[in-house]
Design goal:
Length: 410
């Protein structure tokens, strides 16, 4: 039987597993650009962003692979495959003799993130049903992105004491093995939950899941666009923020704090913002979050003050927290249980393609116009996506912004 309380033990295990998933990518958040500069002498921003491009393409395709794999394999099996892909990652980074090893590590990391994170999202939705879906997504993303922030701080702290090479990636060995063993021996499959839900669901089937999720459906298509732009600016911040802060004279420890606060606030805030979407208009929440992100990016571009940069990191994290769990809730809310895994996978394909677009765009813009101007352009793109959501989406309840209530056209 579905329900958060009824399945709290398995839900908690999946939260723990997702924390390990987030920690794997968090190790790179604060140190990878400077790792490339100092250890391998890579100075061009476009070349430096290649690791994010590799990660983004790999993760996007792996997200979509879940749609196909879920038709043939159990959720648990997909999760296990995701963890197997993670095992070599820290060793490739620790022993990398050249930048190609880093690219290879990020391809495997993208597979891990795409398969494992998608599987935990789908499994949690299977477990909780519709009543607390937003809360469940908030808890899931809280665990994942809090771990991203903590791991980013941990990696920068290790780099401060021991340098960028080898030692900052050792925790990845522990995270990957712990995630794999927990999944194999403790996590149970959830496929039977979605089979039962399908018998009672009143949500109509989408005529074309790819087209409706990608652009046609006014709610599904809008969150897909905003998800792509959200990860576009996240990829830009991931790649350019450490470089910009170093140019402004900040040390490794300060860069780690600023880079770590953003995903930590992102993670913690989702405990509140996910539940908010269960009772309030997701359209307005998503619009507000995108505009707040744009403001934060502008502050980052303009200031060299540590307090203001910390404030911007907090605002960026909270803005992202407003949108992230509600993206997933909208997808789950407006797709039939039998199509949910496919729709979520298509959404995550487009969303994580934002890393690729962000890395390419930021590298080209930063090399051509400088990092500050690149950030201004990305802020404008982010704000525009939020405005589109406000114009196109409609609310799915009448508790907030009543005039926006409508029934989306399928």
């Amino acid at each position: 039987m579905q329900g958060l309380h009824k399945n709290r033990y398995q839900f908690a295990l999946l939260v723990l597993v997702n924390a390990f998933v987030g920690a794997m990518v968090g190790l790179e958040r604060s140190i990878m650009p400077n790792f490339g500069k100092l250890e391998f002498g890579i100075n061009a921003n476009t070349a430096l962003m290649s690791f994010i491009i590799a990660f983004g393409i790999s993760k996007s395709l792996s997200n979509y692979a879940v749609a196909q794999l879920s038709k043939k394999l159990s959720r648990k099996t997909i999760l296990i495959i995701g963890w197997i892909a993670a095992i070599p990652v820290p060793f490739l980074l620790m022993y990398a003799p050249n930048w190609n090893w880093v690219i290879a590590a990020n391809i495997l990391l993208g597979i891990n993130q795409g398969l494992a994170w998608s599987a935990t999202v789908i499994m949690k939705i299977d477990l909780v049903g519709s009543k607390n879906r937003g809360l469940a997504m908030g808890i899931n993303e809280f665990a994942g992105y809090l771990s991203v922030g903590l791991a980013a701080w941990l990696a920068s702290s290790i780099a401060l004491d021991y340098g960028y090479a080898f030692f900052p990636f050792i925790p990845g060995v522990i995270f990957s093995i712990a995630g794999l063993l927990t999944t194999i021996f403790l996590v149970k499959d959830t496929t039977h939950f979605v089979n039962a839900e399908s018998l009672t669901s009143k949500v109509p089937l989408l005529q074309n899941v790819w087209r409706e999720t990608s652009w046609k459906h006014q709610n599904l298509g809008s969150v897909t666009l905003n998800g792509l732009v959200n990860n576009l600016n996240d990829g830009v911040v991931w790649g350019l923020l450490p470089v910009l802060l170093m140019q402004k004279g900040f040390g490794i420890g300060q860069i780690g704090i600023i880079a770590g606060i953003y995903p930590a606030v992102w993670g913690i805030s989702q405990l509140f913002t996910g539940k908010l979407g269960d009772s309030h208009c997701k359209k307005q929440i998503i619009t507000s979050g995108m505009l707040l992100q744009a403001l934060a990016i502008i502050i980052i571009a303009l200031t060299s003050s540590l307090p203001f940069l910390i404030l911007a990191s907090v605002l960026l994290g909270f803005g992202t927290a407003l949108v992230y769990p509600n993206f997933l809730s909208v997808i789950a809310e407006w797709t039939h249980p039998t199509q949910r895994a496919e729709s979520l996978s298509i959404f995550r394909l487009w969303r994580d393609s934002g890393y690729v677009f962000g890395a390419i765009l930021s590298g080209i813009l930063a090399d051509a116009f400088g990092i500050v101007n690149a950030l201004f352009i990305v802020a404008a793109i982010t704000a525009t996506a939020g405005v589109i959501a406000n114009r196109r989406m409609c609310c799915t309840n009448k508790l907030f912004w009543k005039s926006d209530y409508c029934v989306p056209v399928y």
